[in-house]
């Protein structure tokens, strides 16, 4: 299906466009990262509205996180999150062993320092989705070996 | 025939209100506001009872001599309330659910509109 490739290429183009248009400034690419994250945020926010239209109501946070790992991730990346861990204090770690955007870059530690750029959009996506469901959070990502990556979600409680 | 339809946002701010009779709009704003309480009560109730399948449709919220109010809450905490004239022949449950489904679909499509920021009052034509 052409759909998958389309999304991958579009994402790569967005990343390179935003980083290039920021090249002249001295902020070391921070502005580009926030722009990417913001794009991800609005996308996630709106997308989750469509997705949860037919699902039954969520009872608690854990259920929300599980739904994100299964339904949301399959809808966006055509696979589920491989591992979900929590410390029950509002910190969740989602691990994806074959992250789509990184899979086409490399299979080892090559290009490791360039990987974070490609994870920022997805961080925003997660943040937007959770915000839409009523959970404010901070999402960070880390890569140790491509194409596996971990997303850490810190839920902020009132 | 529904007399009034309202959307209430995440922080309980009114997003949209449309009535058949424009002069009664203020009155319906008040009724909408009281319905927020009923909706939250229903949500807390169903959370405590821990039923297996929780529905988005909340059912009859409030019934008085003049009006009946039905509620619906989405997963993104947007509440939809329909107010119906009591003198009308009773609309069946299915029909009310169908109305809510259509409203939910319309709202979902609105959210996908890039010119709409979620949380703003809805000014769609």
UniProtKB/TrEMBL annotation, chain A:
It is found in: Endoplasmic reticulum; Golgi apparatus, cis-Golgi network. GO terms for biological process: endoplasmic reticulum to Golgi vesicle-mediated transport; nervous system development. It comes from the Eukaryota. Transmembrane segments: none annotated. The keyword Plastid does not apply. Keywords: Endoplasmic reticulum, Golgi apparatus, Neurogenesis. GO terms for cellular component: cis-Golgi network; endoplasmic reticulum; trans-Golgi network; TRAPP complex. Component of a transport protein particle (TRAPP) complex that may function in specific stages of inter-organelle traffic. Specifically involved in the early development of neural circuitry, likely by controlling the frequency and amplitude of intracellular calcium transients implicated in the regulation of neuron differentiation and survival. Belongs to the TRAPP small subunits family. BET3 subfamily. This is Trafficking protein particle complex subunit 6B. The lineage of its organism: Eukaryota, Metazoa, Ecdysozoa, Arthropoda, Crustacea.
Automatic annotation (TrEMBL), chain B:
Its main location: cytoplasm. One of its GO terms (cellular component) is perinuclear region of cytoplasm. One of its GO terms (biological process) is endoplasmic reticulum to Golgi vesicle-mediated transport. Keywords: ER-Golgi transport, Transport. It holds the Pfam family Sedlin_N. CDD domains: TRAPPC2L (cd14854). The keyword Transport applies. Belongs to the TRAPP small subunits family. Sedlin subfamily. PANTHER family: TRAFFICKING PROTEIN PARTICLE COMPLEX SUBUNIT 2. This is Trafficking protein particle complex subunit 2-like protein. The lineage of its organism: Eukaryota, Metazoa, Ecdysozoa, Arthropoda, Crustacea.
